Amino acid sequence: MRERLLACATQLFAEQGIAATTMAQIAAAAGVTAAMVHYYFTNREKLLDAVVEERIARSIAYVWASADSDAADPHALVQELVARLFEVTERQPWLPPLWLREIVNEGGLLRERMLKRLPIEQLQRFVVHVGAAQREGTVNPDLEAPLLFMSILALVMLPLATSKLWQSTRGLPRVERNALRRHVTALLAGAMRVPAAAAGETRDASAAPESPPAQTRKRPTSGSAP
Amino acid sequence: MRERLLACATQLFAEQGIAATTMAQIAAAAGVTAAMVHYYFTNREKLLDAVVEERIARSIAYVWASADSDAADPHALVQELVARLFEVTERQPWLPPLWLREIVNEGGLLRERMLKRLPIEQLQRFVVHVGAAQREGTVNPDLEAPLLFMSILALVMLPLATSKLWQSTRGLPRVERNALRRHVTALLAGAMRVPAAAAGETRDASAAPESPPAQTRKRPTSGSAP
Amino acid sequence: MRERLLACATQLFAEQGIAATTMAQIAAAAGVTAAMVHYYFTNREKLLDAVVEERIARSIAYVWASADSDAADPHALVQELVARLFEVTERQPWLPPLWLREIVNEGGLLRERMLKRLPIEQLQRFVVHVGAAQREGTVNPDLEAPLLFMSILALVMLPLATSKLWQSTRGLPRVERNALRRHVTALLAGAMRVPAAAAGETRDASAAPESPPAQTRKRPTSGSAP
Amino acid sequence: MRERLLACATQLFAEQGIAATTMAQIAAAAGVTAAMVHYYFTNREKLLDAVVEERIARSIAYVWASADSDAADPHALVQELVARLFEVTERQPWLPPLWLREIVNEGGLLRERMLKRLPIEQLQRFVVHVGAAQREGTVNPDLEAPLLFMSILALVMLPLATSKLWQSTRGLPRVERNALRRHVTALLAGAMRVPAAAAGETRDASAAPESPPAQTRKRPTSGSAP
DNA sequence: TATGAATGAGTCTTCATTCAT
DNA sequence: CATGAATGAAGACTCATTCAT
Predict the structure, then answer these.
(1) What's the sign of the alpha-carbon dihedral C64, C66, C72, C76?
(2) What is the pLDDT of residues C154-168, one digit of tens each?
(3) D170-222: per-residue pLDDT in tens?
(4) Which residue out of A25, A77, A89, A217 would a mutagenesis test of the B interface target, given it has the greatest number of B Cβ atoms within 10 Å?
(5) CA dihedral B155, B160, B165, B169 (to 10 degrees)
């Protein structure tokens, strides 16, 4: 029953937001009375603790589990992270909305609780890795290494967090998981690639990094529709 | 006073989330009593309406104002959108958190209200544009045109929505606006660039671009960007 | 176990008051679950019944056991009652607080239950005794015989009921049992003594007994009063 | 309305005990909703604060207001204190039960709050006074000066705290205010008197000045003994 | 405009009580 | 005997909302 309640809570939190979810709703979703939720979790606060520790933290840990190999090259690492994010969210569809609203976002109700459990070390190692690769010339030097991970997170999680309701609106693009995966994969691969101009000259010139890479925009052939 | 209340409401909504913000808090922030908020807005619901119509919708409109030129090439268009997003959020720092939590995210309290006001037509035109450019070979064909705009939004807004608290945690990267702008600009520029390989050979190789990324992730090591 | 629960209940009732003591607290103090308390006592009400009948009533009975000898003179009787009160409260330290709060005091939760078990007859006999002694001139005639017993109770029980916390406050006198016994004994002995003046003249005059003491408080004799 | 609520609260607290009195009961007694009590006092805790500060503390202060005269002799002082106690409780009949149950008694809900406001200095001065008088031979040396004040309190307050319900029980003595005043006055006067034996030898000086207002103590009619 | 007083509905939380095991 | 699971009935507290002034 405890697991059941935790599952219902997590799902409702993801669907409606934590602040908008009452203990009674959670109980009703599990088919019991509100008193039961207190029986198992004592507290609203402790329920949130449990959600963080027993649900979210585990998912986060899984995402980073692969990134421990120090040897990996950043391109592979990034693709691996993306893959893991998709894996996790496939099994835990409540993760993106919860993550976005209650952890990443300002004033999120799980923020403080989660800060202690963030994989800071791994994140820092990731940043170092990418930075090294940039200096070696194997990763686009125009990217800001410390911001790259958040970009990955944003690219994957935000679309997934919108899925349900978004889909129902005519005119808006369906966020289909496979399409999204292809899209994000390609987007990141392209973004990390060293620009042609820079590739040759080890990017000393760095001419105008902000200048849109107008040169590479040469269209190849026609029927390349995705 | 009405404007003042609207401003306070918007800021508090962004900081704490709508569900966690009471009428009394808004009133107190403006230095009046809760009754005044009702005097001007009658209703909590109507206050939300006002926030959407008089604050958010205008910001959104501004972002898209540039995209109306049908002729623009997607690269420039995207950079223009990014620029506008940064402009808007500079003046309206409450936009990213509000947008993320209450509009984009599942169960956001402003979602329904905002759906009617989304620039769907412009979005669709943008998608068509990008699609055309992809077929013409001027934009990376591996991207999913319908998902591109959400990616832009995610890349810009999510980091901005986290800024305040993120900064306070040691070990996590500061999200500095200028760095972020450079990062996102470079990231999107690189992502939209047509891959060199594909550029030459019409990207027939694409045979397995959809193949789960894990396997193909092995990069050729050497001169990455051919 | 039943005894054990009864003991825990009595002690907690004395420490926190009945209204503030939950069944679960009692159970926890005895190392069992709340369900056990119901197993043995069925009811909160019946638990209170048990406390009254099996704990308090017995203590009360013991106090009066000595007073049965009709022949005793009031001075000895009073000292005997005091002695018994000290005896009983030595063994049952929970008695004073419980008695004070839940029986003597207005709205006490054991009041109704206890009323039936009060040693009314003995009390009345005590009053008659004292009254007779007053008429005989062996007991201070200014005392109100019907109120004397309550005075005794108050003098002994109230200080004992305060002991624990009182002691912890600097500046307040410690209520030490032996000192208190001496004090109360001396106080009551002195109070019952027939005033020297009155002793001789059998006090006839009678001026105005109800006259508020404030005015007559000026002592006649010289020196002492400043 | 605030005063009204405070009055209702105080009375109910005295009648039923604090723990047994709900916010709704207080509100109902004042003819409003429970929300009003929170409107004025925010909190149960703060309501208790208000009761202590705005009701009880003032009464206590009044009782001690007279005792400030350092010169007074203990006999007069004690009678003055008794007089003040009766005055105060005449106007504030809720004081005795509240004092007994919630302040004096172990685990009383106002204890901590009241400890800071106890007239400790005055109490200590009182103890010093009495002690000095005992050494001078004008006050019964067998009494424990530090315990005397509590005895006074007990003698007056405990019977008053029982009044209402006690009266309704057949067989128990009515606690009539005037009778009680006479009783306590006489009891304390007698108790403080220096024992005749001691008067002659030990402390000669005092001769018989200790005999308190012996003159006025003459009872009116004879067979008034109940 | 602006406020203070007042309220009803709802939320969290506690607790006595029950019951199958 | 003893427990864990479960509940209904409160009780404290919050909050949007109303209204007379």
Answers:
(1) negative
(2) 999 999 998 665 555
(3) 666 667 888 999 999 999 999 998 887 644 443 333 333 333 333 333 333 33
(4) A217
(5) 50
Residue partners of B201: CB distance under 8 A and separation at least 6: A220
CA atoms of C100 and D102, how far apart (whole Å):
11
Nearest Cβ partner for B19 among A19, A76, A182:
A19
Q: Would you say residue B43 has pLDDT above 70?
A: yes
Nucleic strand F interface residues, CB < 7 Å: A 1, 32-36, 39; B 21-24, 34-35, 38, 42-45; C 1, 31-36, 39; D 22-24, 34-35, 38, 42-45
> How far are the Cα atoms of A9, A16, A33, A56, B151 from residue A49, in angstroms, in the given order?
12, 18, 21, 10, 32
Three-state secondary-structure class, residue D71: coil
CB D77, CB D152: distance < 8 Å = no
User: Interior CA angle at C160 toward C31 and C6, to 5°?
Assistant: 25
Position B80: which residue type?
A: E
CA distance D203 to D38: 61
CA distances from C195 to A212, B56, C82, C186, D194 (A): 113, 92, 22, 15, 11
Query: Using CA atoms, how far apart are residues B58 and B55, in angstroms rounded to an integer?
Result: 6
Residues 6+ apart with CB under 8 A from C140: C134, C191, C192, C193, C194, C195, C198, D186, D190
Helix, coil or strand: residue D170:
coil
Task: Give the closest of A19, A127, A226 to B142, CB-based.
Answer: A226
A177: closest CA of chain B, how far (Å): 11
Give distance CA D39 / C1' E8 (Å).
Answer: 14
Average pLDDT, chain B: 83
Cβ-based neighbours of A191, under 8 Å, separated by 6 or more: A140, A143, B186, B187, B188, B190, B191
- Best of C158, C180, C211 to disrupt the D interface (most D CBs within 10 Å) is C158
Residue ranges of alpha helices (H) inside chain B are: 2-16, 23-30, 34-41, 44-51, 57-65, 74-91, 95-98, 111-115, 120-136, 145-168, 177-192, 196-201, 213-216
The DSSP code for B66 is G
Chain segment C157-203, per-residue pLDDT in tens: 999 998 665 555 666 666 788 999 999 999 999 999 988 764 444 43
User: Is-above-0.70 flag for pTM?
Assistant: yes
**To 10 degrees, the CA torsion angle through D112, D114, D116, D118?**
-140
Q: Cα C223 to chain center, whole Å?
A: 38
Q: Can you read off the two tokens belonging to residue A180?
A: 């999204």
B85: left (phi over 0), alpha (psi -120 to 50) or beta: alpha
